[in-house]
Amino acid sequence: MATVLITGANRGLGLEFVKQYAADEWAVIAVCRHPEKADELQKLMQKYNRVRIEGVDVTDAHSVNILREKLADTEIDVLINNAGVFTGGTVSGSATKIDMGQNFGTINADEWASVLRTNTIAPVMLTEALLTNLQRSKEAKVINITSRMGSIDEMGPSYIAYRTSKAALNAAMRVIAHDLKTKYVTIVNMHPGWVKTDMGGQEAPLEPPDSIKGMRKV
Ligand code: NAP
After folding, report:
1. Which of 58, 72, 81, 191 is 20 to 30 A from 173, comparing alpha carbons?
2. Which atom of ligand 1 is least distant from the CA of 34?
3. What is the pLDDT of residues 45-93, one digit of tens each?
């Protein structure tokens, strides 16, 4: 049975990844910050005994280290770095624009650093922490859920923190792909489309099942 580890697994795209992989008979390590509040995940764990939940804040080195120790002998075939934050822009379900320091002229450095920590640094640190587990697999893959908003080619206005966090994630993972070339670990950065989640908002055209189905096919 192949094993996938998914971060941000309690809602949105991460939860949908768990649903689809579990239904497809994968062993799933579902990582979220607050397992006790992750009702949907708890239900999936009851339905499928191959789903396990691990409480980890991906920005917290101590928490990541505990996970690494717990998973010491576990082979991981696919690591999905999905957890992410998007602050600023519209509040989900409302048309209200809020400025959380992501626009030039009102930049909030602490907010920016916090977005970089979650969206850029955490996926790199988690990949590093779980490298031994990935190397136990013959076809290990690290899938990073990035965003077109971080594409240098298509860089648009506003959302400086989010855009730069995903651009830097793309760059960091390309660097790591070179480092891992001889270690048989494939790195892929994927844009999920604009999807109806708390982050994507209700006006997004794609439903989570379709986004995840498409990414899994790729
Ligand atoms: P979402 O509904 O807001 O869910 C984000 C997930 O990330 C939640 O499970 C959240 O956990 C988790 N998370 C955030 N910070 C964390 C931390 N420090 N430690 C552990 N988990 C943490 O967002 P989504 O739409 O599913 O987005 C998933 C990924 O897709 C993100 O990387 C996002 O940037 C990317 N993306 C989404 C869209 C879209 O249209 N939806 C488009 C492009 C890219 P809590 O519940 O504990 O907060």
Report:
1. 72
2. 47
3. 999 999 999 999 999 999 999 999 999 999 999 999 999 999 754 444 4
